[in-house]
Amino acid sequence: MVKKLFIPGPVNVAPEVFAAMSQPMIGHRMKEYAELHGRIKTSLKRLMMTESRVFLATSSAFGAMEGALRNLVKGRCANFCNGAFSDKWHDVTLRCGKEADAVKVPWGQPITAELVDATLATGKYDSMTMIHNETSTGVLSPLAEIAAVMRNYPDVMFIVDTVSSMSAMPIGLDELGIDCCIFGVQKAFALPPGLAIFTATEKALQRAQSVENRGYYFDFMEFAANDDKDNTPSTPCISLIYGLDCQLQRFFAEGLEARWERHRVMAERTRSWVLERGFELFAPEGARSVTLTSVANSRGVDLAAIKKQLGEKGYAFDDGYGKIKGKTFRIAHMGDLQPAELEEFLTVLDGELKG
Ligand SMILES: Cc1ncc(COP(=O)(O)O)c(C=O)c1O
């Protein structure tokens, strides 16, 4: 049975995007590819409000997240951790042989500007990583406040994962001073998985040049050299890149402000539903994601049973991630999902909760 996805990625993909992906193949060293790549870069810069380099990597998000560590961490990295993906990023930093500390806050809490300031004031770090929207907990950290603090640490690489927030809300990279922003396309971008997008400022490229053992596949210098020709170091996922071209046009046709507003409306609607049904919101006020709502299972309902029943009705449901599985559940409202579709899902979920 085909299931409609209300999980926090991968998400439902529009038929127009699948149609765009089935265009005839081209070679990535042909001029047709350079035209496609160049057009996409222009659109991505517009979306991210940046003059940074924008690179396309054929991998899931963690490929580019690992690449950022291998290219940008020269001395010691502060990995800010508040959920499963940020915890994993710390683990990956160590696995890359880098010196790093996990700066942890409890799952469900945001990373604060004060914590970033206090950590970096020690002078121990030349890089920091953080996740803007921790998909495991539905927590959104205050990027603008953190960015304001980061201005006091110009030698510290500001590396941010926006996997589940990019395109759902305004994230102006240049204004924020982000050195390297990374996301995969299977969440807020509503594309099939397999492509990661990342950016690098000139400062980041200078750092990369001075770092040893960058490897090949995610070597930022290789990406920069190929970027000059609107190309990629190795063969990219061309079909998915056709889909990205189509999806970016769809974003601009909807209007970025309208897209942000749609997410805000769906998030508010979901939060009200949660409270009206006697559950609690897992994330504190002011740190709640606009792309997914994480719900504390304060009523102690049998989430595994609900997941099974919803699955039989054709809806994919998430019963929590990692160590908070069963204690929380997540309702995703990201990508191209429309308020009417969310309403349909909430009605079906209501039926299960009553039954
Ligand atoms: C915030 C965040 N970062 C990183 C990842 C890992 O992405 P991928 O599985 O594409 O490597 C995810 C996946 O859910 C995520 O939500």
UniProtKB/TrEMBL annotation:
<dbReference type="GO" id="GO:0019265">
    <property type="term" value="P:glycine biosynthetic process, by transamination of glyoxylate"/>
</dbReference>
<dbReference type="InterPro" id="IPR015424">
    <property type="entry name" value="PyrdxlP-dep_Trfase"/>
</dbReference>
<dbReference type="InterPro" id="IPR024169">
    <property type="entry name" value="SP_NH2Trfase/AEP_transaminase"/>
</dbReference>
<dbReference type="InterPro" id="IPR015421">
    <property type="entry name" value="PyrdxlP-dep_Trfase_major"/>
</dbReference>
<dbReference type="GO" id="GO:0008453">
    <property type="term" value="F:alanine-glyoxylate transaminase activity"/>
</dbReference>
<feature type="domain" description="Aminotransferase class V">
    <location>
        <begin position="89"/>
        <end position="317"/>
    </location>
</feature>
<keyword id="KW-0808">Transferase</keyword>
<dbReference type="InterPro" id="IPR015422">
    <property type="entry name" value="PyrdxlP-dep_Trfase_small"/>
</dbReference>
<dbReference type="InterPro" id="IPR000192">
    <property type="entry name" value="Aminotrans_V_dom"/>
</dbReference>
<dbReference type="Pfam" id="PF00266">
    <property type="entry name" value="Aminotran_5"/>
</dbReference>
<comment type="similarity">
    <text>Belongs to the class-V pyridoxal-phosphate-dependent aminotransferase family.</text>
</comment>
<feature type="binding site">
    <location>
        <position position="330"/>
    </location>
    <ligand>
        <name>substrate</name>
    </ligand>
</feature>
<dbReference type="GO" id="GO:0004760">
    <property type="term" value="F:L-serine-pyruvate transaminase activity"/>
</dbReference>
<keyword id="KW-0663">Pyridoxal phosphate</keyword>
<keyword id="KW-0032">Aminotransferase</keyword>
<feature type="modified residue" description="N6-(pyridoxal phosphate)lysine">
    <location>
        <position position="187"/>
    </location>
</feature>
<protein>
    <submittedName>
        <fullName>Alanine--glyoxylate transaminase</fullName>
        <ecNumber>2.6.1.44</ecNumber>
    </submittedName>
</protein>
